[in-house]
Amino acid sequence: MTDPTDAPETSKRRALARLALVVAVLAVLFYLTAIARVIDVEAVRDLIESTGPLAPLTYVGVSAVLGALLVPGPLLAAGSGFLFGPVVGTVVTLGATVGNALISAYVGRRAGRQSARTLLGTQRAEQVDRLIERGGLWAVVGQRFVPGISDSLASYAFGAFGVPLWQMAAGAFIGSMPRAFVYTVVGSSIGEFSAPLAFAAAAVWCVTAVIGAFAAHRGWRRWRARQ
């Protein structure tokens, strides 16, 4: 006869196995796209350029999907700047960033939401839900300011923890503005270098990195204090 107390442990083991599978898939994608570079970004860029007037819209869609596949965001943003210039390119980059956040968060929710709640347990899951309700939007905004964190991977995690898609879209748009401008300007300078724009991009990057590092450190201290 099966012991009823074994059921929760079995559920947790299954949830952990599902999450491990998701993480493994993301790790393979990261290796293939960011390290092995199996996707030729330059070839994609040339193909999109051939679509003529529809190129900006095409780039938004293709870049959003490639970003969700963990192709590095700076490369995609730089490609946008190279093709469309600093102004239109920044708008295109922001559109692709929002699309990437929505795709990644949706997949993360579908693949890992239930497993994450099972591992957390009912009480902690409800606490996380309340935290997200109060500050999910600003958590997404803050993550975008912290240097060195993959936006796509973070979006998968936010989706698994149940951040609503509207918060993902708004947070990605607000939080990605500085870096979208920086990386797009870097790409546009490949075709035509502009010293004022380059200096502005460097200044924005430095300020954003400092703010992000400070916010992350403060958030970590507050979390430790609550513990």
What do you see in this structure?
- The protein is mostly helical.
- It has eight helices and no strands.
- It is globular.
- The chain starts with 5 loop residues before the first helix and ends with a helix.
- 36% of the residues are buried.
DSSP, total strands: 0
Query: Quaternary arrangement of the chains shown?
Result: single chain
Sheet/helix structural class: mainly alpha
Radius of gyration: 20 Å
Number of helices: 8
Strand content: under 5%
Number of domains: 1
Characterize the largest beta sheet: strand count, sense, and whether it forms a barrel: none
First-last Cα distance: 40 Å
Key phrases:
mainly alpha, TVP38/TMEM64 family membrane protein, 227 residues, transmembrane helix, 8 helices, TMEM64, VTT_dom
Give a quick precis of the structure:
This protein is mainly α and 227 residues long.
Helices, strands, pairings?
Layout: H1 6-35, H2 41-49, H3 55-68, H4 73-120, H5 122-145, H6 151-160, H7 165-191, H8 195-226
Helix pairs in contact: 1-4, 2-4, 3-4, 4-5, 4-6, 4-7, 5-7, 5-8, 7-8
